[in-house]
Amino acid sequence: MNTMLLMAALSLPRAALGEQAPEASPYRVIDFDWTDPARSRAVPARLYWPAVAATTPVPLVVFSHGIGGSRNGYSYLGKNWSAHGVASLHVQHVGSDAALWRGNPFGVVDRLQTAARESEALARVADVSFALDRLLSREFSDFGMVVNRRRIVAAGHSYGANTSLLAIGAEVIRDGQALHCLDPRFSAAVVISAPPFYGEQNLAAILAKISVPTIHVTSTHDVIRIPGYYSGLEDRLAVFDAIAAPRKLLAVFEGGSHSMFTDRRNTGGPTTNARVKAATADLTLAFFDWIFESDGTALARWQDRWRFLLARAPSFKSPSLPHFGVADQETGTSRQRWR
Fold this sequence. Notes:
Layout lengths: L2 H9 L15 E10 L4 E10 L7 E7 L10 H9 L3 E5 L16 H8 L2 H19 L10 E11 L1 H9 L4 E3 L2 E3 L8 E5 L10 H5 L6 E6 L4 E3 L2 E3 L1 H10 L5 E6 L16 H24 L3 H10 L8 E2 L5 E2 L16
Parallel strand pairs: 3-4, 3-5, 5-8, 8-9, 9-12
Antiparallel strand pairs: 1-2, 2-4, 6-7, 10-11, 13-14
GO molecular function: 1-alkyl-2-acetylglycerophosphocholine esterase activity
Protein name: Platelet-activating factor acetylhydrolase plasma/intracellular isoform II
InterPro entries: AB_hydrolase_fold
């Protein structure tokens, strides 16, 4: 099926077949149950696809969930992006997915610790690249023919944020050798609530080779607490500060929680939760306009609309390089503002 035929098939109204069409959804949801034969590892994925195909190739976000998540999660982002013409592929990582919560409850901590091991961290990046391979391959999917290969974005929350950072160039050294995970097909990243890399002290060295634009999203109460592990806002700021690439943005919401960026509705407070989800979806779309269209208009509108939610009012450093919350490119650090 060629590109034009695929676009027509995706957008053909039922009324054209003589049927009474219900109110159309702005997106389609398609599940894939892939298996990577090279690793004998299942890679389930869920695709949110714009219901009315664009006349130009479609941008794509590849999303990685946090520990204990699944392809079903973060649907508010997938729905919002696809409703605005940006497809998103939500990858499920079987070694660190919702299966961790099943089984003997006394074994949860051990299962979480196993899921956080380096081998799983690397397997997650391989999942992301494999899923992208499959979607773009004509052998397995017609959707890849319509994807804009120059507008593919890595995205993730928590553990998934680390996965995305590895996919765009973060490197960890082991036994004198760099563990390379870079997938050069990604031209930007959405980094939500990124924890520090486990056991690593020199974040600047780990993140030094990241060169694509990134947007970082967190909140003042963005705290991870599990037995034997704690990570708060300072860690999110440290990740942001350590990225040397100049095209980066940071938004810090007031209050909230770490898990309010998932599909959970009440964590962080029901009103704040709903507002932050809407603001995050809006902000990422404005970020896409900025990096792909060189248009900061949507970012300017975003700061006017959502200023009341931020821990610090956003400001623009220049028309071409806005920043939000705590980011300060001139002083080189954001952390001093938040102690």
